[in-house]
Amino acid sequence: MTEVIMIILAVVAGSALSMQAAVNGKLGEKVGVLKSAFLTFSVGAAITGVLILFIQTPQSATLLTVPKWQLMGALFGVPYIIIMVTAVPRIGTAAATVAVILGQLSMGMMIDNFGWLQNPTIGLSWQRMAAVPCLAIALWLIYRSNRQSS
Q: Is residue 128 a contact partner of residue 135, using CB atoms and an 8 Å limit?
């Protein structure tokens, strides 16, 4: 049951990311891509800071004691936000979102298969491999539909 709840929460998180992309795309058109990204990270940092102060339970490690390579995860959000703020007004929220998911799926499967970044190994299966072309076809169909609508 916990796994089903995690899947539902991940779908909700994906929905929130699409909403964020649509809102940030509009904001970026009005104030600029970098200012939109700055707002996203500033508000996110402030909210996360409050959550750390009032909700976070103590951990055995700190940001100063973890392996330094683990800190680079913070850098991956910046290109994502900048690219989405730039892409959404040009190709639409759905196409940009599916493109991101295609990249996430492809990289996620490689991380799982090879156990990169100290993650558990989950081997490739025909079902996992079939998901990539299915998602690529979805991206092509959505993008093609966008082009026909405009």
A: no
| Angle, alpha carbons 16-101-10 (nearest 5°) | 45
Q: What is the pLDDT of residues 5-57, one digit of tens each?
A: 999 999 999 999 999 999 999 999 999 999 999 999 999 999 999 999 999 99
User: What tokens appear for 28 in the block?
Assistant: 């970026």
* Three-state SS annotation for the chain: CHHHHHHHHHHHHHHHHHHHHHHHHHHHHHHCHHHHHHHHHHHHHHHHHHHHHHCCCCCCCCCCCCCHHHHHHHHHHHHHHHHHHHHHHHHCHHHHHHHHHHHHHHHHHHHHHHCHHHCCCCCCCHHHHHHHHHHHHHHHHHHHHHHHHC
Q: What is the pLDDT of residue 34?
A: 95
**Where do the domains of the chain lie?**
1-149
Contact (Cβ atoms closer than 8 angstroms) between residue 85 and residue 24 = yes
